[in-house]
Write a structure and sequence with these properties.
alpha+beta, Tumour Suppressor Smad4, 2 domains, 28% helix
Length: 319
């Protein structure tokens, strides 16, 4: 099996750890290794790996690096009709997807374990297939792929984290967890301005209109768990998209939050009280607010249409 490694040298939480990973690779000359320092270099790097017939693509970076990689593979078809096995390392500031897929917290250890599995012919034991989000927006044909989509307080919380937290700490899981908790507490106390201001979204779930017109939070994902072990989905249905939305006038958000965090809300957390969780095949939104895909921010566009689906699946390998 031909193995390739794509490393985003700007994504690592620890430059020393990245150097240790690349030094480790010296003992594996058969692994095709390509390093990038910017998102704009990812397409060329993947083209290089595709030309060398890489079948197992290891991604050393965070959620943002994985999003750019999936977009190139599934959107631009950088590998042609074939889709390589993708193995994300926890090498970025935010590693929500890799963590949910079971990757080791030490990317060097994760890489070593995976390469040992390749050597012994046990890679299949580490593989799981997951649906991947496709987000269509803006110009026709402009799509991005990832594992998490969000509108509302999560979008603005990430903005605040980027502006106010240290680049290698608070912008990741720590910052997201602290900000989400503090925002929920502020909302419970009646604060609905600034970061907490609601967004107007004309939302349709599988073609059916949502009962709400304004949202404090709207999220969709194909992950089992989000950052800090959060599992805010409790809906039913056969769709691959897990969605949860909180209306701008949802009741008693402070009391509801602990159960929602665990995916086990109180009995009174219902659509009638402003909470809706459902598994669907597609979301269609007309809105003028920004959104996030795996921590990457997309600026607001006036009266734009955004569609989210999950028709493509990728085979992910645990590192």
């Amino acid at each position: 099996m031909r193995v390739g490694l794509l490393s985003n040298l700007r994504a690592g939480r620890n430059a020393r750890r990245t150097a240790r990973l690349l030094n480790f690779l010296r003992d594996y000359p058969d692994v095709v290794s390509v390093e990038t320092t910017a998102a704009g270099a990812v397409p060329e790097a993947l083209d290089d790996l595709a030309r060398q017939d890489v079948e197992l693509l290891i991604v050393n970076g965070g959620d943002g690096t994985l999003t750019h990689t999936l977009t190139e593979i599934l959107g631009r078809r950088s590998f042609g009709d074939r889709v390589p096995i993708v193995a994300p390392l926890r090498g970025g500031r935010t590693n929500m997807s890799a963590q949910d897929l079971g990757s080791h917290k030490d990317p060097v250890r994760g890489l070593a374990d995976l390469l040992q599995a390749v050597k012994t012919g046990h890679v299949e034991d580490r593989i799981t297939s997951r649906p991947v989000l496709k987000v269509d927006h803006g110009s026709p044909g402009e799509s991005h792929y990832g594992m998490f989509f969000g509108v509302g307080m999560i979008y603005r919380a990430i903005q605040v984290a980027h502006e106010n937290f240290p680049a290698r700490k608070g912008q990741g899981v720590l910052g997201s967890t602290l900000l989400t908790a503090s925002l929920i507490a502020r909302n419970a106390l009646g604060d609905s301005g600034g970061v907490l201001r609601p967004d107007k979204v004309d939302l349709r779930l599988d073609g059916m209109p949502s009962p709400y017109a304004e949202f404090t939070l709207l999220i969709a994902s194909t992950l089992d768990r989000l950052f800090a072990g959060m599992k805010p989905f409790w809906g039913t249905g056969p769709g691959a998209l897990q969605t949860t939305s909180l209306a701008s006038d949802c009741e008693r958000i402070g009391a509801a939050a602990p159960g929602i965090w665990r995916g086990q809300p109180a009995a009174w957390v219902q659509p009638e009280t402003g909470y809706l969780s459902r598994n669907v095949d597609s979301l269609e939104m007309r809105m003028s607010c920004g959104f996030t895909i795996d921590g990457e921010l997309f600026d607001p566009e006036n009266d734009s249409t955004v569609c989210v689906s999950a028709n493509d699946s990728v085979r992910f390998a645990r590192t």
